[in-house]
Write a structure and sequence with these properties.
Layout lengths: L1 H20 L9 E4 L1 E3 L7 E4 L8 E6 L3 E5 L1 H4 L8 H6 L10 E6 L5 E11 L4 E6 L4 E8 L8 H5 L6 E3 L11 E6 L2 E5 L8 E5 L5 E10 L5 E11 L12 H28 L1
Antiparallel strand pairs: 1-15, 2-3, 3-4, 4-7, 5-6, 6-15, 7-14, 8-13, 8-15, 9-12, 9-14, 10-13, 11-12
Helix pairs in contact: 1-5
Length: about 280
Amino acid sequence: MKFASRTMGAILGLVAITTFSVALPASAANVAEWGVFGDSLNGFDGAVTFTNPNFPDAEIMVSNENTYGFYSPDGEGEGFTVNAPVGAIVGANQTSTDDNFLKVSTYNADAVWTEITFASPVPAGQLVLAISDIDSDRTEIQMYDDVDNNIAAADIIGTATMLGFNWDDLSNTEDVPLVDALDSVTVQMGDAPWNTDGSTGWVRPSAAISQISINTWTEDGAESSQRIWIGQILEETSGDELAPTGVGGSLYLAALAGGAALAAGGVIALRRRQA
């Protein structure tokens, strides 16, 4: 009977190790948010803020514009559904009453310059920049790191896919802008048909970003405007991986140690019995 009970102890210990080796996976849930534009408290032309403390806020300067202002998707009848490329990762915002976009306008051949400076570098893959209502307009984008070095154009585009889309009609593949590298450090958005609705380009940089510089022109001889949207996203650990820290990891290690001790105890006792 002692031989059987100790053998069973060893088996149970090994079962415990096996069981807890696949237990307690980390929860998987992305955290994302569209920035809210508003007045700056520091003398700038505006600011964009986030409620999540992991998302750096930013200050905004706008130069040579005809007009600029902050608007809500709900109030203007614009924005992204969850099926849009940016809506799929940051979230839908069409019904938002927050001022989620900056609208800047300019006249023909007069470039409006928008500079967005973050309070701290936004980590690689976290930033989403979208610019909509691109038709007769064209935009050139440069980004910088925390020591003012240019980010390469390929890293500005980053991991974004379906770079040009039409939020007003996602099946419309003609009324969309071309988004590509103009040179080694500049990304351009433009060449969309004139007088379109919903034409949008976006990027998701694969490098840490401290500042964005956006130059916009219009080419139709009249006033034209674009909308600038800023989103941020944190991708959490996959649900198939064990949480590296916290209670889950502690319980896992405790269970593993306990199972190992139980198994070892059973095996040692068994050997003594046999001796």
